[in-house]
Write a structure and sequence with these properties.
This protein has a 7-stranded mixed β-sheet with strand order 4-5-3-1-2-6-7, with helices on both faces. By secondary structure, the chain is an alpha/beta fold. Strand 6 and strand 7 form a beta hairpin. Helix content is about 30%, strand content about 15%. It has helices at about 15-25, 45-50, 100-110, 135-160, and strands at about 1-5, 40, 60-65, 75, 115-125, 170-175, 180. The chain has a single domain (about 1-160), classed as HybD-like (Rossmann fold).
């Protein structure tokens, strides 16, 4: 499962959905491993937990906005069970009410975590109202999608899943008011 967090109407905050769009497009030519689903999420903690609860692997893609950003730089984080860093103000670099770290802490307390989690966080420059990624973030989308494809394939190989031509690339789109299925 891949979850792209973000809002396409908040400039670089749309990095997660942009990566999902490219993964969907690429999956038409080179299928993702069997059972892979792609989901968009607005970052609401309840929706994230609903998506990833009990998933064998969840890859999360989100933008974040540190005080001194290097737009387009991507960070990969694979949190170990029960070993989360102590960042009391982690949410301040997120455009969501609760940041991903706080959501993960809550999920662990509630027993609603994926078996394996990989987080990709792309540094953004602009998150004001508007569409389109800034050029450095847009340039990061393709290499990030390729890296995620590699992660998914590596996970499939280690769990014995073979590449299948009909992986579910539709996924679901989730936002504050609706749930609908995307069509390829």
């Amino acid at each position: 499962m891949v979850i792209g967090i973000g809002n396409v109407f908040r400039r670089d905050d749309g990095a997660g959905p942009a990566v999902l769009a490219l993964l969907r497009q690429r999956a038409r030519r080179r299928p993702l491993p069997d059972g892979t689903t792609l989901h968009e999420c607005d970052g609401d903690p309840g929706r994230l937990m609903e998506l990833w609860t009990d998933a064998p692997v969840a890859v999360v893609v989100d933008a974040f906005f540190p005080p001194s950003p290097h737009p387009g730089r991507v960070h990969r984080w694979c949190p170990a069970p029960d070993a989360l860093p102590d960042l009391p103000q982690a949410g301040r670099h997120s455009t969501h009410g609760l940041g991903l770290l706080e959501t993960l802490r809550l999920a662990r307390m509630l027993g609603r975590c994926p078996a394996h989690l990989v987080v990709y966080a792309c540094e953004g420059a602009e998150h004001g109202i508007g569409t389109g990624l800034t050029p450095p973030v847009a340039r990061a989308v393709r290499p990030l999608a390729e890296r995620i494809e590699q992660d998914l394939q590596r996970h499939a190989e280690t769990t014995g899943l073979d590449r299948q031509p009909h992986a579910d690339i539709r996924g679901t789109r989730r936002n504050a008011s609706t749930t609908s299925h995307d069509t390829p």
